[in-house]
Amino acid sequence: MLTACSRNDFLCDRDSWLAESYTWAADFRALLLCWFFSARKREHITPLLRELHWLRVPERIKFRLCVLAYRCLHDTAPSYLTESLHLSTNVAARRRLQSAASPTLLVPSSRRSTLGDRAFSVAASHAWNSLPAAVRDTPSLLCFHRCSKTLLFQSSFHC
Greatest CA span in the chain, whole angstroms? Predict the structure, then answer.
């Protein structure tokens, strides 16, 4: 059962929608890889994912969140998403901190870990702040795509 959500919520109902969509996406990728590579149904698909340079589903979600955050910070995303993210350098009390040199996002506090942490503003801020400063400071979207996907691929497959 899906619950009513605001437009800024990234994932609404953890137990039903997320579990179903995550399982469906993983199953679809496995089916596609087995069909494309003529692999057996019981074989592991991790080597195939590595060979194709595909991200696993959790890393793919983090990658899409980071791309949306990058687009929000460079004013190429929809305004309703851009308004939900705030740089820590825009807060007067944090301007004098040493960490103000790198552009990090404020992570809004949420009361419920099951629903609130999956709101776009919280999930995108966590994903963005987890990237190294060298990746966050890339000059173009294409370069950001390349750097962040490489980073997530290496952390996913321990390369």
Answer: 58
Residue with tokens 């990728």: 29
CB count within 10 Å of CB 144 equals 21
pTM, whole model, 2 decimals? Answer: 0.71
Distance between CA 51 and CA 64 in Å, rounded? 21
User: Mean pLDDT over residues 125-141, rounded?
Assistant: 92
pLDDT at position 84 = 87
Q: What backbone phi and psi angles, to 5 degrees, belong to 126?
A: -60, -45
Q: Which residues of 57-95 are buried (b: 16+ CB within 10 A; e: fewer)?
A: bebbbbbebbbbbbbbbeeebeeebbebbbebbeeeeee
Q: At residue 55, what are phi and psi to the nearest 5 degrees? A: -85, 150
Residue type, 108: P
**Per-residue pLDDT band at 135 (split at 50, 70, 90):** very high
**What DSSP line would sit under 54-121, residue for residue?**
PPPHHHHHHHHHHHHHHHHHTT-S-HHHHTT--BGGGSGGGTTSGGGGS--B-----S-TTTGGGBHH
Determine the Cα–Cα distance for residues 154 and 159; give it in Å rounded to an integer.
5
